[in-house]
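Help: why these numbers?

___
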Amino acid sequence: MMHPPDEFEDAGDGSRASRKRFILLTGAAGRIGTAFRLAHGHDYRFRLADLETGSLSETPGKGHEIIRLDVSDAAACHAACAGIDTVIHLAADPRPDAPWESLLQNNIRGVVNICDAALAAGCQRVVFASSAHAIVAYPPELTLADDAPPRPGNLYGASKVFGEGVLSAFAARGLSGVAIRIGAYDAPWFYEDTDDNIAAAYISPRDMNQLLVRAIETPDIPFAVVAGISNNRQRRFDLRQTRALLGYQPQDDGFRAREEHITRE
């Protein structure tokens, strides 16, 4: 597992004491947020934010804060970003067929509120959970550049394209932004699907965790769009920019994961 380096602050006696980076993790109770906080609870100090907070106390490590956060509430987002170094913004309605009113509140207003609050609070960076749905309307057999021009096929994908644009707009105002086009994140449904195009977009929890750490820790990125997939035998994204910019080294393969699952049954 990759462990991020400690930051340091003046201890007041001429020495420097280590200080863990303070991360606001929205959507902390979701699958991606849960895997990340369980893997890195000792590496970072988290402010864990979600609408449902019951499971968040299980996070390992010390000094974490837990808040209930509705990202459509601008004032609540400003309070959530106070004192934060980096925001990982996972909170959204993740349904490809989500109704417009939910997308408007959770995905559209949510990302604007978070970026506006992060800029006002002096946060260093926002890492945004975009989606492979941002490019889903391209022919499925194509391998795309990680930052290929958007071509969503549904309003959910369009909301993620909007989020990428919001990060770019706030980067122009000085807030670093990294948008990750997350593919088919590991889940039980993945192993029931025989579509090779889905396997080509697979990302394992281990690789997703590594990618989030790289997105937090890599310096000097004003704005970037990167790809969130594993080292799959066939790939929806070519991963060139993500490897070069972030030093991302994915370990897993969706095709192999599916084959191993079938062998175990």
In short: The chain has one domain: 7-264.
